[in-house]
Structures are given as C-alpha cells and as structure tokens.
Amino acid sequence: MADANRQIVLDRLPQGDKLASEHFRLTETARPTPGEGEVLLRTRYISLDAANRAWMQGATYRSALTSGQVMAGGALAEVVESNVPNLKAGDTVFTDTGWQDYAVLPGKRLEKLPAMEPMTHLMSVYGIAGLTAYFGLLKCGRPKAGETVVVSAAAGSVGSIVGQIARIKGCKVVGVAGGAEKGRWLVEELGFDAALDYKAGGLRQQMKEAVPEGIDVYFDNTGGEIFETCLFAMKNFGRIACCGAVSQYDGAAPPHGPRGIPGLIVTKRLTLQGFVVMDFDDERGAALKELEGWVASGQLKVQEDIIDGLENTPAALIGLLNGENRGKRMVKVR
Asked: For the whole prediction, is pTM greater than 0.85?
C-alpha cells in the first residue's frame, strides 16, 4: 500500500470569476492512520456534481468551502483498515472523502454498500443522481400519465434519468440540453419525445413549437433563462421541482432574476418545490427497488462518464460545468 496521500486542495476561492484549474493545487501528505472508532478509506471513484461549485459560494445544505482545504466531494471508497465492528477491509461505502487518495472518518457515520458490478452504478443510477431524479420527479413533480414533462440539463446525470422515468410513467417528455448532438442522443437513445437546444437561441419559440399546449411538470436543474422560459409556458396548476441552478453557479451573478414570478405563480396557481435527496431517506429502499427493476427490464438506460486520474479531477469538474458530460460524470482515482 502506498504511504503517500495525494490531495487536491481548493487553493483559492473564485471571486466572481469562472472556475479554473488555477483555483486548485495538487499536494501530497502522509497516508493517515485510523484511531479508535475510525476507518481508513481508499477513494475509488469521486462524484462530480454542479453542487461542488455551489459549495464555493456559501453555505447550502452543507457548510461552505474555504480556501486551503481539501476539495470536498462524495466518493465510492474501499475500507482499508477498520476499528469499528460494522465494517471490514474490502467493504465499499459512499461518503465525503474529499478529493484525495485516502481519508480517515468516524465509522459510525458509514454504511456498507452492496457488492455490485459495475460498482459505478452505486454512484449513478443507484446513488444520489438516480435517487434525486426519482424523488424530485415523483414526489415533487407528481406527473400523471399523458401529462407533459420538461427537464433542463436533460443530458446530465439527473436530467437523463428524470426524462426516462417520466417516459416510463406515460408522459410526453421534452429535454432541454446544449447542442444538437445531445438532443439526438436524448431522442434516439433515451426515448425523449423532443429535445430543445438552448445554445441555438430562440428558446421560447422552440418551446412553443414543442409544447404548444403548455407544461404540466418542469424539473429545473439550471435556473436562469431556461427556468424563466418554462415558467411562462406552464399550464394552470403546473408543478415545478427545483433541483439546482447550474447556470448561476459559475462566474458573475446574473443581472436579474426570473421576471413576472409573483403574477404567474398566482394566476396560474403554480406549485414550486425545492428539495434535496436526503428529505426522502426513509423511502430510499423502495425507490432503489423500483430503479433496479427498470434497469433490469431495459426501460432505464444508465449513462456514465468516467475520467481517469485524481489529477484530472479539477478539469473534469470544469468540463461538467461547461456541459461536456453525458450522464453521470465521475473520476476513477486508481
């Protein structure tokens, strides 16, 4: 076992500028040793999410990141040494190890994951991405068969699963993504009814043509212009599941928020619900069972985007924020 522990440190917080490789620094320390009640973990796959960037802006559902600390991030990790009875060497857990080879954490906060091949599915469809899509759509959006569902960042880790679940539930599904190639993939491979290209311009006109009857459920991953466009296209009593706002995480703050919100919400009697996946922890088992059934039957396709090498993690996150990925992006550490 290597004695060195490579770490990627958040060297400098972005101050109104876009995230760049210069904000990070690769360093090396000694491999840590677990104490009583602790576990030594070896990081296998690091999860990359738009939320990584949001944590740099301030406190969210977790504390804000500060310069000089190891970059935070969830990961699939292997137990190397254990000083707790519920875990043994070779077990797999999902936890916030940060961007590093090894981490020592209290064992009482860790839960053994089932053995699975490929193990990366524990991070994508059976991890936070899949559960976020499942609960956000079904518990907050509450779609009914025959309704129209629109999802933004539709080619991403959450959006691609949201659209497929909506299709399974008998809905008309429209995805908003960047670029014609992603749009073709959504329609031809994942079964979306239509895909809109926000990079092509004229998004409101595209939306009118795709959903002339209006939107029943909008799953929002982006905020910004796409949110505003969908807001004006909502039907009466429409539901909006607010999952994220990736368009506003990186770079300068937008010049204004969505216009006309109070009047639209009132006159259309809209429901907007924000959520985080932990809100539904008590229903996790039932959700996983249903997701597993859909994957086994071929109704739900799993798309993963795996980058090799801890040293490439900053570039991989920057690429995700620029919309490079299809499906769940992660970094294979070693």
From this structure: yes
